């Protein structure tokens, strides 16, 4: 329990380890390749959830919405581990890295569990039927507008 308490009290302290540049013999090319790759992965891992959020906001009555949120959290946490790895070259925040990895593991397991649990329901969804329903609802709304216009026109002719 003492180690857990120490872990959290020193969570953002990095003076127990050297920066990654000082560990081993990094060439400038190898170090920057590692850093730029991790930052590119982090950037992609933050853009993908933004697209998922945009999609879920535009698509109403989306089934399995919690799965989308879990995927978003999973992807953001995965990206965060890459960002912290890039920062390790200057700031060796291994405790924060470990915490991010634990959170990533927990959300990954939760996402896996929900996908396994919901897989039969996901397979049973009939996208073509849903698309037909959407098109029929859209057509119905158009017909209702036309009927309303005709009623208005008939009422104006009676007067």
TrEMBL record:
<dbReference type="Pfam" id="PF25487">
    <property type="entry name" value="ETR1_N"/>
</dbReference>
<protein>
    <recommendedName>
        <fullName>Ethylene receptor 1-like N-terminal domain-containing protein</fullName>
    </recommendedName>
</protein>
<dbReference type="InterPro" id="IPR058544">
    <property type="entry name" value="ETR1_N"/>
</dbReference>
<feature type="transmembrane region" description="Helical">
    <location>
        <begin position="67"/>
        <end position="92"/>
    </location>
</feature>
<keyword id="KW-0808">Transferase</keyword>
<feature type="transmembrane region" description="Helical">
    <location>
        <begin position="31"/>
        <end position="55"/>
    </location>
</feature>
<feature type="domain" description="Ethylene receptor 1-like N-terminal">
    <location>
        <begin position="34"/>
        <end position="125"/>
    </location>
</feature>
<keyword id="KW-0479">Metal-binding</keyword>
<keyword id="KW-0547">Nucleotide-binding</keyword>
<keyword id="KW-0472">Membrane</keyword>
<feature type="transmembrane region" description="Helical">
    <location>
        <begin position="98"/>
        <end position="116"/>
    </location>
</feature>
<keyword id="KW-0067">ATP-binding</keyword>
<keyword id="KW-0812">Transmembrane</keyword>
<keyword id="KW-1133">Transmembrane helix</keyword>
